Amino acid sequence: xxxxxxxxxxxxxxxxxxxxxxxxxxxxxxxxxxxxxxxxxxxxxxxxxxxxxxxxxxxxxxxxxxxxxxxxxxxxxxxxxxxxxxxxxxxxxxxxxxxxxxxxxxxxxxxxxxxxxxxxxxxxxxxxxxxxxxxxxxxxxxxxxxxxxxxxxxxxxxxxx
Length: 161
Prior knowledge:
This protein has 161 residues and is mainly beta. The protein has 1 helix and 10 strands.
């Protein structure tokens, strides 16, 4: 059974002549020079494990002052041949089916009647059913599953029937 010793170094202004501490510093320098995250070292019954923590990642908000033309994340551009669309009534996360593993409510090329459920939008942990507003054929799904949508975003390109 290996014994594990914890080494705690204190910053001091005087040099230490401790050979174990010097060896640990050499190992740490080797670790940094080779960009290693973890290193284990064992010598004469002493086991040392050094682990470098990953640098903290901080989310930085980015302000984009450019004008985007139909370039909402998760939303594909609406083709000219599909001028009729079903739009999102609220802000939330778009889902094609009742759950990630469930089949979608509608598929491209499928006929739907007014009032048929076509997707879900999750807003504040509540799943809101979006229904077809008219009899139509779903020509194209314009938003990827799990993507955020805003009120008025086109969800489906349709053909009126």
